[in-house]
Amino acid sequence: MTPLDMEERIVRYGDLQPCKTAFIDAHTPGSDQKENFTIIGGGVSESPDQHVHISIPHGFNIGAAGQPPKCRNSLHVHRTAEVFFVLKGRWRFFWGRWGDAGEVVLEPGDIFNIPTGIFRGFENIGTDYGMIMAILGGDDAGGGVIWAPQVIEDAKDHGLILSETGKLYDSKKGQTLPDGVKPMPLLTDEQLKAIPEPTTADVVPNYVARYLDLVALADRQPAKVIGADAKLRDKPGFEVDFITRASARDTPSGHAYPAVLMPVTGHWKVVWDGGAATLAPGDTMSVPENLDYAVTPSMTGEAALYRAVGTSDPAGLTWQP
Fold first, then answer.
1. Which residues contact 246 (CB under 8 A, 6 or more apart)?
2. Which residues pair with 200 in a beta bridge?
């Protein structure tokens, strides 16, 4: 591929276009300063205002959330995988019907493969604007978001109504549900009881990997982070590995499925037949299937990146309570 072709598959951090009306809690106090980014794929936004940077199907989605201190993302459920790693800031992730079944605090570089099919939320508990990068399973990201009933009720009190088709209507802009379209139904008590509520002890050892542990594991070869034989054993339709200066190699190789490179620290040079590019933390690069490439640090100092690669595994429910 030519440098021009590949440049269209790179999204620079400084070029990210946020959406502040992406979800039903966009007006709810405490959640009304969120910025949502859809980088690769359609994402799960409920707003037509959401900008998609790269629409090429990968078998998974890449997104991001940016939030100021004390800003919270409300409790919701996904039908497929939702993986986050911290790019900037300090974040608390919590889960359960009311968000009190368990929690974990993540620092820059830490990664969390949140169990599929449980209520989850997160908040920036740092002192500055924070950013987390997300990998969502499937090209359609599991068909959207399922909200906890109290989130839908709170949103209605602040002017936002979610239709049964998953589209937001804002009464502050004079919008109403079209004739014949009903609001999104609340989960029933029976449905709520069927949603698992694992404890912190259930989740953290099997679904969280710390940055410094991965740096140690990647001292000779890339550390397998998510996969059938990885540190976090799962098959969500993609695999994730972690590359450092010590495990980077300048010998080109490729994948049978699309890959995405996401630097955490340092600057990285990506070289392929016909071109090269340099990536910085916060940049995202899509590598097409069957393209041989090499990725190595381009400067001195600490350097690490996450790489997600599609697989043939279905992007379905993987959590086993």
1. 218, 219, 220
2. none
Q: What is the CATH number of domain 210-310?
A: 2.60.120.10
Torsion angle in degrees (nearest 10) through CA of 91, 203, 79, 256: 90
Does 143 have pLDDT greater than 80?
no
pLDDT band at 31 (very low <50, low <70, confident <90, very high): very high
> Does 210-310 match 12-207 at the fold level?
yes
Domain ranges of the chain: 12-207, 210-310
| Cα-to-chain-centroid distance, residue 316 | 16
User: Is there a contact between 213 and 262 (Cβ–Cβ < 8 Å)?
Assistant: no
pLDDT digits (tens, 9 = 90+) for 213-228: 999 999 999 999 999 9
DSSP 42-82: --S---TT--EEE----SEEEEEEEE-TT-EEEEEE-SS-E
Q: Which residues contact 259 (CB under 8 A, 6 or more apart)?
A: 286, 287, 289, 307, 308, 309, 310
Fold classification of 12-207 (topology level): Jelly Rolls (2.60.120)
Question: Which structure tokens are listed for 97?
Answer: 């019907």
Query: pTM surpassing 0.85?
Result: yes
What pLDDT, on the 0 to 100 scale, is given for residue 141?
A: 61
CA separation for the pair 4, 140 (Å, rounded): 28
